[in-house]
Structure formats: C-alpha cells, structure tokens
Amino acid sequence: MSLSATPATDHGLVNLHFAQTLVDALAAAGVRDAVISPGSRSTPLALAFLRQPAINCTVAIDERCAAFFALGRAKASGRPVALLCTSGSAPANWYPAVIEAAQGGTPLLLLSADRPAELHGWGANQTIDQLRLFGSHVRASHALEAPQAGFASGWLQRLAARAVAESLAPQPGPVHLNLPFREPLLPAADPREWPQAAELPLPSPAAAFSEAFSADTYAPGWTCLPDPAAIAATAASLSGRRGVIVCGGGAFPPAFAEALLALAAALDCPLFAEPLSGLRFAALERSQLCVRQESFLRDSSFVASARPDWVMRCGDFPVTRQLQQWLSGCAAAEQIVIAPPGRWNDPQHVATRVLHGDALHIIAALTQAVNAPAAAAWRQSFVRAEAAAEALAAKLAAPDSAAALTDEADRLPGSDADFWEGVLIPALLARLPAGFRVFCGASMAIRDLDSFSGGGSKPLAFFANRGASGIDGNMSTAAGIAAAGPTLALVGDLTCTHDIGGLALARGRPLLVVVINNGGGGIFEYLPAAALPEFARGWLTPADADFAHMAATWGIGYQRAATRSAFAAALELGLAAIERGDPCLIEAVIDREHSVARHRAWWEQHQ
Question: What's the catalysed reaction (predicted)?
C-alpha cells in the first residue's frame, strides 16, 4: 500500500501514515533497535515501531531506565537506538542518559511525542515546552509540526536519514525529534485500510543519505584527517625520542588496537592501556603494553628516572588520579592529543598539539611517517617496572595474601580477612569466558578495575558510563549491553540501589551482576570528606538494602558471598545461569574498614 497522505477526514489515519513512513525510513537508514515507554500521545509511533519487522522493540515502563537501556544497547552495537515516549515530564526523565550519551559519544535517536501547537500555553494536561528540551546536549534538534493530510513523505524520509547521520558524525551522540500529534491518534477506518510496515530492503529517497554508512559496522564511510603537514611535524617530534602513549576509553574500530601497537613498536615506546581502551584483554602482541602503570607510577624514584620527552594520548582522559597526576607532572614534555572533531580532551591544559580527526587513520599515518625508534633502554625500564608490579599482583592473588598486608583482626561476622576487591576482581576476570562483555560501575569499581584487572590474551569487551561518570542508570545500561550477549556488571552497592528499576530489564537476559557491598560510598573513604564528623550521614550513606529481596522482586537468581571460597562457588552458579540465558545477582560482602586498610597497604608497597 502506498504511504502517501490520506484524506483529512480521518486524522488518525494521517497520524499512522506519518508514523509508519518515519519508522520505515529509520529502518531503511539502519536503525535496528527501539526502546518504548508506554503512553497515549506516542501511540501512532509505538504502533509503527512494533509493526516494523526490521526493528527489535523493548518496552520499559520507566523512562529513565529506558533511556539508559537504550544507551547500553547503542554502546554494544555501535548503531543509533531509537527511544520513544509520550509527552509532558516523560522525556525529561531521559535527561541523565542524554547527557551521558553526549559526553560519551553514543548515538541515540530521541523521539518525544507532543501535543500540537494549539494546546501549548493554554493549560492543557501533560503539556510542557519540549522544544530544545536537552539544550546543548544533543547533536541536533528537530521540531516537527503535527501531521497534515498530504504531508511530504520524501521530506520525512530524508529527515529520518539525516537524523541517523547526525547521530553518528562528525561526533556520535543524541539527536532529538519532537513529534506532535492531534487526536484522534489512531484511525477510525477499517483496520484493513491501515498502512502496513514496509519490508526490507526499503528503497526510498533516504538511501541517498544512508548509503555512506556500512550496514555491518555502521561506521561513517568518510574520514576526517588533519593536515598532512601536521602529521609530518608530529612524526618528526616523536621519532628517536623517549615517549609514552596513553590510551583511554573510546568507541574504537576493530583495527585500532593493532594500529596503535604498530605505532608503539615503530617508536619503541611503552603503551599505557587503561581498562576501557580495549587493549588489556585481547589477542594482541603485548610487548609494548603496560597495564600496571597505576602501581609503578607510585614509585617516585622510578618516575624521576623515567621522564619522557613526549606523551601522546588518545581516547578519554585517564580514569585514575595516579595517572592524571603523572600526566600533570609531565607538563614540561611535549603532549600530543588525538581527539575527534570538535572535542578537546585536555582538562589539564597541557597539550602542545591536538590532532583532530579519525583516530585510526591518524595513527596509521603517524606510523608511516615515523623514521626512528627511541633508544632500547627507554622501553626496557618500563618493562622491568611492569614485571615488578605484576609479581606483586601475583602474590596478592595467593591464599592469605591479604592477611600479610594488614594485621588488623576485627572484621564483619562471617567475612574473610583475605576477601577484598584486590583479590575479587582478578579472580572474577580470570573465570569469565572469552567474549564476555564487562560493564563497570562508577566510583571505586572502575578505579579498582584499573588497579587490579591485569591483562591477558582472552578477549573481553569493557564498557562504562564515563562521559559524565554518574552512578545513575548503571544497571539499565548493563541490561542494554546484555541484550547483545553475556555480560558482567561490576557495581557497588549504592550504584545498584540507585537504579533498582534497571534490574527489571535484566529479566530474560544473560546479565551477571556482581555487587560489591562495602556498606555505602566506599570511594569517599579516600577523599577529604572522610575526616568530617558528618561523614557517615552525608557521604557514606549506607543503603542497608536487602539484595536478596531486590533480586527476588524481579525474579533474578541470587547468591551471597563473604569469603573467597563462597565467591568462587557463587560465581560458578552465576555463570551456569548465564549459560541458560538467565540473569543472576551475586552480593560480594566486603568489610569496608579492612578493604581501606588493604588498599593503603597495597599502595605503600609500590612507593
């Protein structure tokens, strides 16, 4: 059936024609996932999405959880995910996830239904000003008019393709379409006359806009390179001199890791791999890699003797304070930053050169232009430091290692003096099957991952919400990632409690949730607030949540562990549930005071 406009006598039929044309065009442009929150004003679009066979629809009643779920789905797939809700305060619940998507460079399509113009400003129910609702946090914003008979279908198809393109390039992020509908929302006509969803392939004018994108990888079909003279000048400043490459997190293409290692080999320099870089756990040649820098950079004598002439950064700014402080101490060195167009990843204001463009092609161009490595002794000093830190980590993994770090005897009843994050994290990662996705929560979880994860050739994919680094929506994001396959969510007790509604989205998905329950905001133990008399009330804020009941609420399997052996047993049961496609929550009970003591003892060994 033609998708041209229908007579104005049936506004509901016009609405559905309009909605189906838009959704079919989104499918034609490559959208494969939509997350829908129930509502009335969004009915035409919800029906169009549910009837489009090329788009997988997830229904989530809480708009905030829905938005973070869409964020996780987009992180895992690299494709823009459509997000739909009704009018009023509903789209305002998307705001935290929109900010995270904007800061983290994750493509989302925000479709907010709305009341028509004649109802705004007249006290109509569920009507707010939704135009420019997300301000500067969207890559583009499109305010549409309510559908009219005879609407231009070609324009609507091109708008859909344009919105998809804007969400991906030049910098991925969210795009907002505000879509008003007049009542009646659905047709009065015989349902046999209602428009039907088009089947793929969907030839349309949108193809002219979408053909520049790959259907498999969904990466832009064009690249943005800096001026060749800048590449030549940068390569000349790197060649033959002592340097360090630092790789943070980012949505890098598959070939990026090998390209970056090839550059490090050409320069014969160490490559500091952050946990979200994709370099720590991968089948790669590892002679240039350092994954224990958070440890050996605490050694002041080593830092003083190994001062680089240059530092090159790519990806996000480093996670840990230790690496941040080291970078600040390298202010006298030349510092080169590789960043996407329009991004300035230099919060310390020390960059001497910023190369904007496609990171993979910049790295490849630099590798070709480099003409001399550093002296062999330069990298070897880092190899020795890495090996020494690795040896200490191996001791940490040995039985009763924690007891050797501290002689304190008091601990939580039933807990294990040898059970803390420093032994939990490497044991957990060692047991995960290859190909697992790992979502790491904010605060201490991501920092402990950096300190204790180590590395290896087993491929694991790491994710986190580091754009704005909030604890909100972490469980929903992890559930969205789990829609792509088996996923671990490593989070703290407050992070899990903050997004308890997100656990509902874990049902029927292979999500293993490991909650490190250390009785509140453990990260604040290491910050100035810990010395305040109001610390427990204002910062630690223990939730005292019953995680067994929390899991049972959503029909999720539950295990509790307060010792190494109990955790190992719980992990086996959790992984068995994942193999069946079921979620499981493991509560790892950590004595916070002992954990703090062991962290500090661990750090002191490296000073």
Answer: isochorismate + 2-oxoglutarate + H(+) = 5-enolpyruvoyl-6-hydroxy-2-succinyl-cyclohex-3-ene-1-carboxylate + CO2
